[in-house]
Amino acid sequence: MRLVNFHADDGVRIGVVNGDDVIDLTSVDAGAPRDIQAVIADDAFQAVQSIADKATDADMRKFDSLSFALPVSSPGKILCLGLNYMEHVNEGIFEKQPFPTVFMRTATSMIAHNEPLIRPSVSETLDFEAELALIVGKRSRHLTEENALDAVAGYSCANDGSVREFQRHTIQWTMGKNFDNTGPFGPVFVTADELPAGAKGLNIECRLNGQTVQSSNTDMMMFPVVETLVYITQGLTLEPGDVILMGTPSGVGHARKPPLWMEDGDVVEVEIEQVGLLRNTIKDEA
């Protein structure tokens, strides 16, 4: 199942993606769920499908006509992996790490598909990072290799927009990774059963103004989905709607000579095979 949250006159609604069309669940049934995160928490996907099965042409909207909201409206935790593709490690100043490099983003840093990605006035060093986003489906602690994938509700696209200058002010990355409105996320939430186990073997790409700047495959992760979930849940309880960004491939702007920073008016796209396309335009902070 492929779902989106989108804005309507009466608030956010859920849509079921059907090719170029989207089934407006609230149009079909006024009592339909209105938030994907609630569907995840309640494991209500069968109910959503039952409503969608009743849709008529009058309940259809064009995908490209929608104003999208975040696929997960208020994640309790947004965990991120750094240095998870070996080629990305090699293009930077760091060495391969024996354990996943985990840091956190805030919800206020995240923006939806087609919303402006804000380049802050205090720095020119705004960089792109195409990433696979994993969305947790159930409360989980001490996961094992055998049951880790049971905790995954689905996946989406993300762009871990990074203000590199501030990221390097200290050994902690939090500041540079959490500027307001720098983390695109969405638009489509794809249930895990639609993809290969652990989202393996998917091409992942970032384009800046139509030029491919990152291109890799999720098979190249050093710490794949299962290993990451097992590691994290040794210490953290994951909750439905928590998000994990699974790291970025090589090709980021700071590693280029000269560096390639995103500028006002640029269009950045993240595309992941079988998941979707996330697009945002860069806008200078007012």
Portion in helices: 10-25%
Largest sheet: 10 strands, mixed
Note poorly predicted spans.
none
Per DSSP E runs of 2 or more residues, the count of β-strands stands at 19
For this structure, what is the CATH homologous superfamily of the largest domain? Fumarylacetoacetase-like, C-terminal domain
What is the CATH topology classification name of the largest domain? Fumarylacetoacetate hydrolase, domain 2
The level 1 CATH classification of the largest domain is Alpha Beta
Number of helices: 6
The structural class is mainly beta
Lateral arrangement of strands in the main beta sheet: 4-3-2-1-14-11-10-17-5-6
CATH architecture of the largest domain: Alpha-Beta Complex
Distance between the termini: 39 Å
Order of helices and strands: EEEHHHEEHEEEEEEEHEEEEHEEE
Strand fraction: 25-35%
| Gyration radius from CA atoms, angstroms | 18 Å
Structure, described:
Strand 1 (2-8) and strand 2 (11-18) form a beta hairpin. The chain has a 10-stranded mixed sheet with strand order 4-3-2-1-14-11-10-17-5-6. The protein has a 5-stranded mixed sheet with strand order 8-19-18-15-16, with no helix packed on it. It is mostly beta strands and 286 residues long. The termini are far apart. The chain has 6 helices and 19 strands. The chain has 2 domains: 2-65, no CATH class; 78-284, Fumarylacetoacetase-like, C-terminal domain (Fumarylacetoacetate hydrolase, domain 2), CATH 3.90.850. The protein has helices spanning 25-28, 36-42, 45-52, 86-90, 164-167, 225-232; strands spanning 2-8, 11-18, 21-24, 60-62, 78-82, 101-105, 110-111, 117-119, 126-127, 130-136, 152-159, 162-163, 183-184, 189-191, 203-208, 211-217, 243-245, 267-272, 276-284. Helix content is 13%, strand content 32%. The mean pLDDT is 95. The relative contact order is 0.20.
